[in-house]
Here is the input.
Amino acid sequence: MVAADFVQLAGAGLTTVRVFALWSDFQPLEQTSGYLGEIKDYRHGEGLLPDTAAGRAGMDECMLQRFRLMADEALKNGVQLIAGLITGWMSGRLFTPHAFTNLNVLTDPEVLRWQMRFARCFVETLRDHPAIVAWDLGNECNCMAAATAAESWIWTSVIATAIRAVDPDRPIVSGMHSLEADPRKAWSMAGQGELTDFLTTHPYPPYTRFCDHEAISTLRPQLHATIESLYYAGVGGKPCFAEEMGSMGSTLGSDEIVVSFVRPSLYSLWAHDCRAMLWWCAYDIVDPTRAPYDSAVNERELGLFRTDRSAKPVLHAIADFKRVVNKLPIATLPPRIIDATCLLTQGQDQWAAAQSAFILAKLAGADVAFHWFGDPLPESPIYLLPGLCVSNALSHLRWEALLARIKTGATLYISIDDAALVEIIDAVPHPFHEMGFHCLCGKFES
Here is the structure.
């Protein structure tokens, strides 16, 4: 079946597949305990861990061999793989080893020790395989348990360091779900950007604020993947691609509506250098009796192929896009012309500000990049400060740096949403209009 899958995927023109090592299968640890619950040892079932490199890491050698066989089939068909490592979350269900059932799998030091062994063993075993082009931390690992900003940084650092220790050449992909622009929040774009080589978005319109108000074949859902990927890249400081994208099945529209959603999304991602788009997923679910698919109806029919292996129209739309791009007389597009930088600040809904600024700029014939106001300012002819909503959103030092740019010819646009602007007013030695200010106030008190 796996061999037939890769033959079919390659025949459809797909070049990259994201595959996962399900944590509970690849590191099936059981814990034995003694007096007063003291941990005695870890086992595979009732058997002691084998005295091999994989066994000492708690890994199932049979599963590692199966992964290699799968990678062999991908290589035969010219398909490259992004390999997801600590995959303890999939489609709304946790798949963690039994030994860690009652532990926080992102913060407990005992779990971190075994996760580091997992990553090191898995990568060391398969680093020689040419089909693997990147290591993904895992599928949306930030959904596995609660963590603070510091704890999420430590977890990411532990896994990324384990990977790089045995394979410093392949890139590491974040693989997370719904990162935050504010670096103080858990799972921030900056934190993931610091420790990985590629950020990723999983832009599903039904699950994203302000993308679920209209049909998926309309403007905001069609631009969703592009805006969110540029948002992550700008704030996180690393390239970003749409690692998971889909329509969430027939509940949101017919096959024709899904095609009208994906076609402009693809061209928009390509035009904005968002690197790649991976559809979730390859095949519809054959067996709906296993959790989470026995109850999560919308997870069953997300594939490019139906259960009878027939192709859906969305696959043809993706193939058509690839054919068009491959026929162009240029290999890549020239760099985007960035007309303005959108500065995002504390206290606001950063995603709402970013999405609105991008769409309004496009309607005005302009293009914007995103930047966190707390970081050093990039050069830009125009700065946008949309939706200020708390009095401490702007640090004094960054504000002074911004004023210096305005004094040398840049233009600043500010819109106000219930923020106190005492420092802004006091800091400006000249009337706003003489310095290139454009201020639109909503609620304003001074």
